[in-house]
Specification:
mainly alpha, 344 residues
């Protein structure tokens, strides 16, 4: 294996490495759409995941997160937030239209392609599903029928759980968040004081944090992509690359639940990652990531202030560490309980 310590020797070099990973296209490609996988395989043991390289990468990610939180409380941070508000005013005032158009396009694409429940690897032979998806797209033309689309997404999600199992669909809670947003927005209601866009934002964060753990648990799933696209690893050892890609995705996903400037910058970076991946991986990637791209655009435009309890920057690394431990535990224990493998 390449000596990674040499690469991460100075803070400036380390930050540059993480930023390179943030914009590397393979970090945003969902491996299940392009490579063979088997969720019944035993995942990598935690003793292999929690190695010195992983710990160093996590430390660097936490430092960058803390820096972003500290920046937000400064005059420069305030100026950046005001500038961001001006630039994203169109997204903010047209969030509902954006969601209706984006999700509608997504379902039309599924209808045209055929044989897909919600994402490219979730196949179905039931012809009626395609016409059901077209009906869901049509329902988005009018606000009063938006809840029907939300209900329809929940139905498709349930069909996918029935066919592929609950653990597999743990990859995609974002669809439930989108369903909740469409239903609540159509009804012009919130969820016990929680805004529809916040439900959707949290579902996106959970989806991406879960996907990050999968990069650590099954890095070998992505190795065939590195053979086909050797430049994707940026010259690093594939094992190290997958650790770093997962850390970058996790810290950006966690940032989506944090303060206004931090979450919107994270959403902007993630949008760039997903859009750039389309140019590399084509139509299949565009269809698969359409829903999360429009959700991220909605997050970028959302200028709602953060809740007071999230204001102190010191809470960011503590909460990040808690979230990291929680998702590692949920993934490995969930895999053992639902799939039947060992917790190692």
């Amino acid at each position: 294996m390449r000596n990674v310590k040499w690469r991460l020797g100075s803070p400036a070099t380390a930050i540059a490495v993480l930023l390179n990973f943030a914009f590397a296209q393979s970090a945003s490609a969902h491996v299940k759409w392009f490579c063979a996988y088997d969720i019944f395989d035993q995942p990598r043991g935690l003793e292999n995941v929690l190695c010195p390289d992983f710990e160093e990468l996590v430390g660097l990610a936490v430092a960058l997160l803390l820096a972003g939180c500290l920046l937000e409380g400064t005059t420069l941070g305030d100026a950046m937030l005001r500038s961001l508000n001006r630039v994203t005013s169109f997204l903010r005032t047209n969030t509902e239209l954006l969601m209706r158009a984006g999700v509608g396009f997504f379902f039309v694409a599924l209808w045209t392609t055929g044989g897909i429940l919600l994402t490219p690897e979730l196949k179905t032979t039931w012809e009626a599903v395609s016409w059901f998806q077209l009906a869901l797209a049509i329902c988005l033309l009018w606000r009063p029928t938006m809840p029907l689309t939300g209900l329809g997404i929940a139905v498709l999600f349930g069909l996918a759980v029935h066919q592929y199992g609950l653990f597999h669909l743990a990859d995609y809670p974002i669809f439930l968040g989108v369903a909740a947003y469409l239903a609540l927005t159509g009804l012009q209601r919130d969820f016990f004081g929680i805004r529809p866009i916040d439900l959707m934002r949290w579902s996106a964060a959970i989806t991406l944090m879960w996907a990050s753990v999968e990069k650590w648990a099954y890095p070998e799933w992505s190795f065939p992509l590195f053979v086909q696209y050797p430049g994707m690893t940026l010259g690093f050892d594939p094992e190290f690359y997958m650790r770093a890609a997962g850390v970058v995705e996790f810290v950006l996903a966690f940032s989506l639940v944090w303060t206004s400037l931090v979450r919107r910058i994270a959403a902007t970076i993630l949008t760039g990652m997903f859009v750039s991946a389309i140019f590399e991986f084509g139509k299949l990637d565009a269809i698969g990531h359409m829903a999360i791209i429009v959700v991220l655009l909605a997050i970028i435009g959302d200028d709602a202030p953060s809740r007071a309890r999230f204001k102190h920057p010191v809470l960011a690394p503590v909460s990040f560490g808690t979230a990291l431990a929680l998702f590692l535990c949920l993934y490995y224990v969930g895999h053992a309980v639902l799939v039947g493998t060992r917790v190692t």
